[in-house]
Design brief:
The structure is a single chain. By secondary structure, this protein is of the alpha+beta class. The strands form two sheets. A nine-stranded mixed sheet has the order 4-3-5-6-11-7-8-9-10. Strands 1-2 form a two-stranded antiparallel sheet. The chain folds into two domains: 1-75, Orthogonal Bundle (Arc Repressor Mutant, subunit A), CATH 1.10.10.10; 80-210, Ribbon (Umud Fragment, subunit A). The chain is built from three helices and eleven strands; from the N terminus they run αααβββββββββββ. The two termini are 26 Å apart.
C-alpha cells in the first residue's frame, strides 16, 4: 500500500476524485473529466498527474488508452476502518465475475459490512427488476462471493455470460429466480442447473451513505 506521506496534495485530490467517479459512474474519468474536476486549464496537467500515479503503481494504463485503479493508498485515518473491495464491470462468458480482467478498480468499504473469512465485490445493478427489493438501476450492490444460496436470498446469477440479480427459490426439480419490480413486464426465470451463483447481495450503495 502506498503511504499517504509520499503523496502530494494534487495526487491525493486526484485519487479521491477517481474513487468517487468510479462509485457514481462505474468507470474511471477521462483526462478531460479529471482536468475539469481538478480545476486545471489544460489536459496536460491532468495527464501529468495520471503519469505520476502510474509511476506510483496506483493506476494502470489499459490497451484501450483508458486506465483503472489498481491500488488503494491510505489517504487518512478513516481508511484503517475500511477494506478494499473490487468494483467489477463487464463479465465475459464463462468467467467468474470477480476475474481480474473484470475489475475496474477498488472502493474502500467499512469493515462493519464485511465478515472475516469471506471475499466481497461491488457490482453495478442494471435495470429495475428489483426496485421493490431496494435495488434500483445503477445502484452499487455489495456481494459476498459464494456458490450456494438459501431460500429467498438476493443472489447474483450468471446466465449465458450475463449477471442478473434476483430472489433465489428452489423447488424439487427447478430453480426459480424471481424479480420484485413495480414493472410487471419482468417475469420469473426458471432454470435447472445451467447457471452459476456468483454471490449473495448483502447491502446496497445507500447503506454506505453517511
Amino acid at each position: 500500500m502506498v503511504n499517504q506521506n509520499i503523496l502530494n496534495q494534487k495526487q491525493t485530490r486526484a485519487i479521491k476524485y477517481i474513487r468517487n467517479w468510479l462509485v457514481h459512474n462505474g468507470r474511471t474519468p477521462s483526462v478531460r473529466e479529471l482536468m475539469s474536476a481538478l480545476g486545471y486549464k489544460s489536459p496536460k496537467s491532468a495527464q501529468d498527474i495520471l503519469s505520476q500515479l502510474r509511476k506510483l503503481k496506483i493506476i494502470k494504463r489499459l490497451d484501450s488508452g483508458s486506465y483503472k485503479l489498481v491500488s488503494n493508498p491510505d489517504l487518512g485515518p478513516v481508511h484503517a476502518q475500511t477494506v478494499d473491495v473490487p468494483l467489477v464491470g463487464m463479465v465475459s462468458c464463462g468467467e467468474p465475475i470477480w476475474a481480474e480482467q473484470n475489475i475496474e478498480g477498488f472502493i474502500p468499504v467499512s469493515i462493519s459490512f464485511v465478515k472475516p473469512g469471506f471475499q466481497y465485490y461491488l457490482l453495478r445493478a442494471s435495470g429495475d427488476s428489483m426496485n421493490r427489493a431496494g435495488i434500483k438501476d445503477k445502484d452499487l450492490v455489495l456481494v459476498r462471493q459464494q456458490s450456494m444460496a438459501d431460500e429467498n436470498d438476493r443472489i447474483v446469477a450468471l446466465i449465458n455470460g450475463e449477471a442478473t440479480i434476483k430472489f433465489f427459490h428452489k423447488t424439487n426439480n427447478a430453480i426459480i429466480l424471481k424479480p420484485k419490480s413495480s414493472d410487471k413486464r419482468y417475469k420469473s426465470i426458471i432454470l435447472t442447473s445451467d447457471f452459476q451463483i456468483q454471490g449473495v447481495v448483502v447491502a446496497t450503495i445507500s447503506d454506505f451513505e453517511e
